[in-house]
Amino acid sequence: MARFLWGSGTSAFQTEGAWDQEGKGTSVWDHYTHSAVSGNSATETANVASDSYTHWEEDVKALELLGVRSYSFSLSWPRLFPDGNARSEPNTAAVEHYSRLIERLLQKKIEPIVTLHHWDLPQVLQERYGGWKNNTLVGLFEEYAAFCFHTFGSRVRYWLTMHNPYLVAVHGYGTGVHAPGEAGGPSGSLIVAHNLIRAHAKAWHTYNAHYRPTQKGKVSIVLGSHWVEPQRGQATAANVALCQQSIEAVLGWFANPIFGDGDYPVSLKIKHGALLPTFSAEEKLWVRKTADFFALSFGPNNLRLGRNLVQYGQTVTPDLRRILSWIKLEYGDPRVLVAEGGWFSEASVLQGERRTGEEKNMTIKFDGVQVFGYSAWSLVDGFEWNYGYTVRRGLFYIDFSQPNRTRTPKTSAQYYQRVVADNGFLSDETFREVKGRFPCDFHWGIADSTLQVRRQEDDFAAENAK
């Protein structure tokens, strides 16, 4: 029986830094954070960030300390190809950097899980073609993917084509909150999503036809989601149906073409009408089943977005177990990798990881979901997109005011270390007996782990008031 892939992860833009060093080109996120296009978003840049390009060996040591069996990281497209064109000569320094990282991971018996594209599109492709709005990028991405498969594939068993394309489509080209900062509304998001799905499928087919026979790896795409359910006492059939539509509007938008029937959910067709691009009959057959396992992102970004998608009387909740069960029922019981799991904190301690072991155990044992890996996000504190450095998600704390960017394990890292060592079963939990009394005015209470949802029109008004 294969060992469960406990792991942790990072993305290139959030942690690498060295934004203009050793031949790296500009990404859309470099341009976005350096220009006025970001508006009221984060004023910080990721010029140095966690400086993982320089301190990659310390990241590997952090992984060793955790005792994890996998490391999920992304390749920087503009670092490998500053002009975005994989038919040109690659940046040798970048190829050597990623080769060294992969080799060191394998030496330490840590499985590399490599993402081809985690949002940092080469800026030149945005300027020349309009980025992901242009279907030319489908072919360009396929060529970039083929280069990566050819160059690193003999040492990589797990590939992820792109990370959470929903946020790229909605925030990058719909609301403009993410790079490249285009507020094209639903029509822009729908076109971008269509091209992202087709780019993923094309890369998968390339691997399947030309690299799988010898490399014997697996390829998927990381899809993000929230979980929504009726509030207590409001579980009517109509409300349940609306919850289903809410999940389809996020996860189903990308998962149904790839893991379902090759087409968009009916609820999206009804909602968007003629704005929604269409797959031909041939394309439906070509797109469906272009993933060797289901990779899920379940973090705060999707949960925040989920709040604006639900109706009154519903609740968005960070319940990983339920979304995994939904995936099992909806898409035929696929093998699942939780490619991003975790929460954020404004302090030095990451909250929300203490349920990791028991939640995976219940999901696998009682729900029968075929979860084969979990990546605690993230390994180190980094640049959190439009939130800059105001929130932290790392298991290891980084003082961004210090030039050496020392990695310091948080209490969550120590806890996760024990989860990994016990394979999710914390058998050695010990509690010291403490006696005493609380003050008379101590406020006892109870809390719920759900995010209560206001009326949709109130959320819309609040968003537009910012």
TrEMBL record:
Matches recorded under InterPro entries: GH, GH_1_N_CS, Glyco_hydro_1
Stretches that traverse the bilayer: none
SUPFAM superfamilies: (Trans)glycosidases
GO molecular function: hydrolase activity, hydrolyzing O-glycosyl compounds
Biological processes annotated in GO: carbohydrate metabolic process
Cross-referenced PANTHER family: BETA-KLOTHO, GLYCOSYL HYDROLASE
Family classification: Belongs to the glycosyl hydrolase 1 family.
Name of the featured protein: Klotho beta
